[in-house]
Each structure stands twice: as structure tokens, then as C-alpha cells.
Amino acid sequence: xxxxxxxxxxxxxxxxxxxxxxxxxxxxxxxxxxxxxxxxxxxxxxxxxxxxxxxxxxxxxxxxxxxxxxxxxxxxxxxxxxxxxxxxxxxxxxxxxxxxxxxxxxxxxxxxxxxxxxxxxxxxxxxxxxxxxxxxxxxxxxxxxxxxxxxxxxxxxxxxxxxxxxxxxxxxxxxxxxxxxxxxxxxxxxxxxxxxxxxxxxxxxxxxxxxxxxxxxxxxxxxxxxxxxxxxxxxxxxxxxxxxxxxxxxxxxxxxxxxxxxxxxxxxxxxxxxxxxxxxxxxxxxxxxxxxxxxxxxxxxxxxxxxxxxxxxxxxxxxxxxxxxxxxxxxxxxxxxxxxxxxxxxxxxxxxxxxxxxxxxxxxxxxxxxxxxxxxxxxxxxxxxxxxxxxxxxxxxxxxxxxxxxxxxxxxxxxxxxxxxxxxxxxxxxxxxxxx
Length: 436
What we know:
Distance between the termini: 33 Å
Radius of gyration: 22 Å
Shape: globular
Strand order of the largest sheet: 3-4-5-7-6
Structural class: alpha+beta
């Protein structure tokens, strides 16, 4: 990076985006809103330094209270630590304010993808594409689990793809390091993808994410949500109506009040996976990779297990015949991220203390880039290349692809995800390209 660009880097300009004002570095041009959520607004932009399209998220009022500040700190720390091709890449972090006293805004720059899985779910995918997308989900999740990070918020709008069939997991504001013996809040995952142990307040381990992946894959196969509960009680009812009431040994793991409620519900025999996922829902069997509907159905039957102690693990899923055709040790066994803050989830601070911590993170990133003369994430990682050379002008009307119009449960405050921001494309996704 030459000195002229370094000078440009510290110059900012302001632009109104919806009800918010973005004040960004001049290197970022052609901003267009592409998504919004409880934690911020996302715009696509063209980065003249990296000569590529990017996504810029402005965190929404990160210092309005301790909860927002802690989530902002957690997201920033985790994004700086994680480095895997199936997890969205952090390209830059900046603030237009020049001192801690003025510090009010945080902007996070990430890779721009083409669409989220909400759009892919409506496509007819062959076994190669379905299997490959699932493989990439599992690789990204395994990378997080290796660092003790349980995502807990996996859903179609939090998983993004490129037209070349590459996939990445995004948004970590609610990710937290795994813990044992602690009461964990049940209001985390968007309801439809919430595992039974979360619904029932049992606490959970890493394979809570496997249930969510199973629900997502089931939705890709069926073209509709598998368990469309209207509230947390109805969500449990939807699960047992289809999978059957779990046996007594599972019910004995519940606390007394929850067990009493569950035992007083009507008992359901459930349906076989052959009936839930008949062959007609799947694409034709693959001659090339010998992938079959029976294999996909078998994997779903191992993921969608109510009792988490009997549910398949990520490692086991990666070895399943429907998935292991893509197995690459460099992707599956990538070095785990090193979380520098060992008390990331246990920290409790005042808003001013959180503000000071986040300011240091932003400052350290800026100093790192000054010393190294490059921006992390350059050159673009595999699968992050953009289709068009420059973003299209923003449209004033909402489209079917616009993620900001895809919220499934806007009226329920307990369901509002603090990371429910997707990076949608400035173009339609179109057909997914062949897998590698």
C-alpha cells in the first residue's frame, strides 16, 4: 500500500443510509444498504484499496448499555481470532472518531457474499451441491468448536454463499465459549432451529449446533421450515408431533416443573424418517459421487435426535458417507482459532469499561495494519471473489432477495437475534456453479 493510499485511508465522508448515517473511509465507495438487524446495518461497498467488493457493518449504538457493549466486544474479538475459509473473513475495523472520549461508532468490514441460504432453499439442488454445502457448514462449525465456541445462532439467514457454491458462516455477536455446569439463557437461536435441550432449558454442549444444521438441511430438502413453532411451547409440540415423544430416560433429565409439563402433553408416536423425507423430496441419485437420497435421509435421522447424548457429533457427521466424499484434511483439521481473551464470556464491565476495551481492539487493529502495510484478508481468500467488478446502484424498493425483508419473527422480542444481519447480494444469485 503506497503512501497516497495511506493518506486517503484516514479521510472520511458521510452518507445517509436509511435512518442511519455512515461515516466511512474514502476508500469505500458506492455504498448500498443490503441488510439490517438488532445489532446494526450492513452496506455493500467497493474497496478501492483491495479492489474488491466488501460488506460494511455499522454497529447500532454499541455503547447504549452493557449488553450491547459486551456483544460488540465479543463479536469483534471472535472475528479477529477466527480464520477459516468457511467463516466470514474480517477485512478491516475502524472508527471515524479520533479519541476514546469521542468514540461512538464501530464499523466492521467483511467479505461480501452473493446471498444467504434463504434464497438457496428455494432452488432445486442436486446431491453434489446439497452435500457440498452441508460439508462446508460442518467444517466451519468444527473450526469454532475446536476453540470451544458454540455458535448457537445458526439459521439460513446467518449462512451465506457465493454463486461458485462456496459457503461461509457469519455473525458472532451471540457466539460464546463453551461452558459446563452453568445455566445458559434459552433465548438465543431463532425458534425454528432451536434444539430441544435449549427449548427445555437443559443446558447444552457443542452438538446443539448439529440440530440447527439438521433443521436447515431438512428445510433445503423440503422447501419449507421443518418445525414452524409459533412460540417456545408450540415449538416443542411441533418437534414431538413429528419425531415422537422422547422416552422416559430423557424426561428424567428435565427439571421437575418442565418434566411435569412435558409428561402432561399428549404422547406422539412420531413418523419415520422415510415418511418425513420420502425419496420424492430428494434429487435423483448421483452417478458421479454415488450420493443417494437414502444417505441424506440417514444423516438427517442422526442429526435430528431429541436426546443430545444420542445425537451425532460434527466429527461423526463429517465422516458420514453423504459428506466424506469432500473430506479434505486441510479444511477439516485446520488449526483452531486462538482466543486471546480467556474470560470472553465471563467478563462483566461498566459501559465505559467496555468502551475502553473496544477502543483498544480498534486501535490495535489500526496499528497492526500500519506496521504491516497490508490489510488482513488480502489477497482475497478462496471463494471470496466477487462476480461484478463494482456494486450496482442502490434500489429504493425492497426486493424478494433483500435480507432486511426476510425477518421471520419481527413481533416477538425474545426471538430478535442480535446477530440477525445477513449479507445479501446486489444481484440475484442465479444457479449455483458446480462443486469443486
